[in-house]
Each structure stands twice: as structure tokens, then as C-alpha cells.
Amino acid sequence: MVVSVSVRLPRDYVVYSFSSRHVPKFRAYPGDVVVFETVDALGGQVVDESTPLETIDWSRVNPATGPLYVEGAKPGDTLIVEVESIRIADRAVIVAVPGSGALHDRKFNAAARVMEIRGGKILFRGIEVEPRPMIGVIGVAPEEGEYPTSTSGYHGGNMDVALITQGSRVYLPVFVEGALLAIGDLHAVQADGELCVAAAEVSGEVTVKLSLIKGKRPRYPVVEYGDRYSVIAFGKDLGEAVYRASEEAVAVLMRSLGLSFEDAYMLASLVVDLRINQVVDPMKGVRAEIPKRYAKLEHLLVPAP
Ligand code: CA
Question: Rounded to the nearest whole angstrom, what is the distance from the C-alpha of residue 28 to the centroid of ligand 1?
């Protein structure tokens, strides 16, 4: 089947924050197929392994391509972003930055590694790693204020969820007219945790199909992948993120199965997996994976207040 692309957003059309103040130059309609061309999270500034990290312009880090105005999207709706394909360049880069990552207190040198991607493999210093292209940053304008593309929240943002890959659907709550979608920060692969602070940062392009659900939205961004819905929670530390993910998963089970808090709490302990998205961004990320047999999409959505 030939899919016709309605809109293509070029890779020099970027924002460094999610905000209703950005004026969109591109528009799409529900049902449209849209291509986002993206630059890697380092803004393409690490060209080889000898690039000194202290020369990086940190104001050009984490570009997200957008914003895209989605016709008909109103506050209280859900924007569905179906990831049809992710194409990546044949070269990715990863950095270790002193003071950053899960082992931020250890003494180590700044380092960058360039990874060739060929023959369907990522080569990290001769070690083969299976590619699994994913989207690190995906979000909409928040209800108020301005969130840098380096952080995450109810609006999405730098969620670094390894499940946001080809075949997944991302359900984003809409806070402003047109939603103002932006996408960036592709990873050729990233493990849960992203523990050194970076992944296989890569440029590329993402093809998505857009649709809307009117009048209801999820409390947190939700990712549908395989037989599960994942609630993408965040917190200033992992404990807070775990609390929020758990609280929402229990609320979903109460709605879907008509259970008391106590029963939903116990059932969640049997069937809901809590998994780490990342431990290195300004807001740490935990997801609650709810098998579809215990909740339908409608149970993850609530009327907007
Ligand atoms: Ca990221």
C-alpha cells in the first residue's frame, strides 16, 4: 500500500521548548500522515570522537521538530500519534558526561563514541548491538508555561520511552488549540534506564499518522504497544514517579473492572509491571504497563476538568 504523506516538517524547523507561545508554520488534519525530519539530540554537533564536549553549544541540544498544528484539536481531547516508521541515519553517537547519569558521582573523563550502523547492526567499538529505533522526545504544548525539550511532564516531552517505536501509538493529552505537536531525539537503540545519560543519538525521520479522540484525555501520556497500555509517569526522583504510575494504574483498574481501591491495589500487584524509562533526565520516568485484558483504552481516558 502506498501511503501518501500530507505534510513533511523539515529538520531545521525546530523548537527547544514546548509552549503555546510557539507559532506553528505547519498544519495537518486528523487522518493525515506526517513526516518529521529530525536532528540528533546533540544538535549534530558531535561530528567525531575527538569533538571536545566542552565546545558543545548546550542551547542547541535536544531540538524537537515542530510545532505542528493539528486541525480540530481542542483542550480536553486526546491526540493519537501512531508511529508508522522510523528511519535512521547510518551513524549514531553517544557521550559520557562527567557529573551526569546514574553514576554521576564517579570520576571519569568526558567521552564520545561514534557508532556505524551497517548490515542491520550498530557497532559500538566492534561490539554488535541490535538496533531498535525509538523516539525520545514527543509532546504537545502544556497547559501553561514553557517546558524545555530536555524535560518531561503531563505534556510528554523528553520521556525516553524505549517502547515508542514502530507500531506503537502515543496518546497525548491536548491542552491548547491545535495541540502543537513536536517530535525529536531519535535513538537507534536505548535500554530502559538510559543509565549513562545518552543513547545511540541519531538523526532520521519519523512517519506518523494522526487522529483525535474528542472530549476525553489521559491523565499522563499513554503508550500502546503490543498487548499493553503503558502509563508514562514522571517525578523529581524515581520514588515520586513510581507513586504516580502506581496511583494511575490502580485508578484505571478501578474504572475498568468496577473494583474497590483495595481490590484494584492488590490486582495491580499481580498484573501491572512497573518499569523504568530513564533515570537520567530532569524528571525521572517510570511506566505502569497494564495488559489490555484488564483495561480498555476508554478506561485510561477521563473527561477534562
Ligand atoms: Ca532524550
Answer: 26
